Predict the structure.
Amino acid sequence: MNIKAFIAVVSSVLKDWRVIVTLVAMLFMMWAANFILKYKKKPKKQKKQKAAPAPAPKQEEKKEESSEEESKE
């Protein structure tokens, strides 16, 4: 079998519709398998919690402030 006959056979095989359909189907299956293997769900975004209000000053601090205010008057 010479090279020209070999090229003619390969060309006729590659132009056959069954080979083309099989190639497309195999590529699609490989793409789907790759997608399934690498698929990861995105993590849910956590809602930002509202900032807690500043804590109220302690009773001792209030007493000191009130005693300072009284002394100023």
